Prior knowledge:
Blueprint: H1 2-22, H2 37-40, E1 46-47, H3 49-52, H4 60-63, E2 78-81, H5 90-105, E3 114-117, E4 128-134, E5 142-151, E6 154-166, H6 170-176, H7 181-186, H8 197-216, H9 243-252, E7 260-261
Parallel strand pairs: 1-7, 2-3, 2-4, 4-6
Antiparallel strand pairs: 5-6
Helix pairs in contact: 5-8
Amino acid sequence: MKVLIWLACIGGIAYGAYRYAVSPACGARDAVACPPAELEEGFGVVLKASEICPSAGYLCLDLRNQPAFRWPLDKGRLRVRVLLPEFASGEEAEALRQAAIEGIRAWDGHPFPIVIDTAKFTVRMWDIRVVWTQGLFNEAAGLARPGAEVQGKRVKFSMSGLAIVVPPSPVQALIAQGMPQEIAMSLQDKLPPGDSPAATLARVRAVATHEMGHALGLMHSDSENDIMFPVLAKDPSRLRASARDFRSVDALYTLPNGATLQ
Ligand SMILES: [Zn+2]
């Protein structure tokens, strides 16, 4: 009898841990509604581009060549893990993380509620993890390469990491390239000014939004008014997701997952 009670306890704890780690899925509070089966069994389905594209923003620019791949709606919500960048400390690190979180949360509700996980230690499973790197000015500002694996009619979507590149100040860049610190510091007045802290945070926010758009399954836009345009806008007022960005992602999640257009 005692053994049975122990087993029941262990089973209960294991179930609780499982629910804590991966729940809630679709249909739960704070999660999207569970989709009809045909919406998630869309591989091989062919749709008419003329019916879908006029109201789908820039979604169709790439969908003519490849299937629509996205997270399955029965996931319910997306969990994004955002730790502090290791190359910064104190308030600077917190500010960078906060900017990334704001950028990622721009997509909250399109369609998934986005849950941000900042805990140093966690038992929860996350779907997307932010990877911070410090790079030079001419390198890419970020990177996100989602993966999609077809299993029968279903699509298994995944993301290995969402990278955000933060440019160092010109002095830091020289030190990183091997120049002794005293010499680099002595050149400070002669170097072009780096981005101001506010400009750096605006850039991180915009890069996070752009890469999170890829993480949701979006490709690039053909208009510089959209955050998914391949080049970051110079005008700070354009560094945010546009109505067309939202229209595109919303359209992606109403298509059967894995469908192609003709
Ligand atoms: Zn991009």
